[in-house]
Each structure stands twice: as C-alpha cells, then as structure tokens.
Amino acid sequence: MMWHSRLSALRRQLVQVDYWQRVGVLAALIAAAIAVTYSVHKSRQYLHQLQVLQVERDNLEVEWGQLLLEQQAWGAYARVGKIAADELGMRNPAPHDIMMVRP
C-alpha cells in the first residue's frame, strides 16, 4: 500500500507539471501570435506612411523643378537687360563716357 500511495502521489505531481507545462506553452503560443499580428499591423502602417511620404517627395521634386525653371526665366540676361532698358532707362555708356583706370 505504501508504494501504491507513493506512486499515485508521484503520478499526480507529474500530471500537475505536465498541466503547467501545457499552460505555459499555450500562453507562449498566444503571446507569439499576438506579437506577430502586432508586428504585421505596424509594418503595414509603416509601409503606408512610406508610400505617402514618397508621393509627397515626388510632388516636391516636381515643384522644385518648376521653381528652378522659373528662377532661370526670371534671371535670364535678356530679360534683365530688357527691364533695365525699358523700366529703368539704363543704357550702355557711350565710348567718350568710359574712363580707364590704370593701376
């Protein structure tokens, strides 16, 4: 009888350890599933944010190109010369108005 009670007590301990191991493994599996779901969700959010930023970058590059063209048009020598002559009344000096300075 003594061996029988010891054996049944040992069996109960093993069953309890096995039960807690299963609970631990199940908890680990649930935690891993939640972590994978969360990481997939975050990666999709980051991908969407990246795509939005890429569209914004492309729009800014187009605007930058347009501004460069506008800057070149406003700063063209022919335009500056025309405005100087028409609006400011500037002209090239006559040859007798030019003075040479020697060092």
List the helices and strands and how they pair.
Blueprint lengths: L1 H73 L2 H10 L17
Helical stretch tally: 2
The N- to C-terminal Cα distance equals 127 Å
* Topology as a string of helices (H) and strands (E): HH
Number of domains: 1
Q: Report the portion of residues in β strands.
A: under 5%
What would the average pLDDT be, to the nearest integer? Answer: 87
* DSSP strand tally: 0
Shape category: rod-shaped
Uncertain segments are none
Structural class given helices, strands, pairing? mainly alpha
Descriptive key words:
mainly alpha, 2 helices, rod-shaped, 103 residues, 81% helix
What does this structure look like?
With 103 residues, the chain is an all-alpha fold. It has one domain (2-89). Helix content is 81%, strand content 0%. It is built from 2 helices and no strands.
Brief overview:
The protein is built from two helices and no strands.
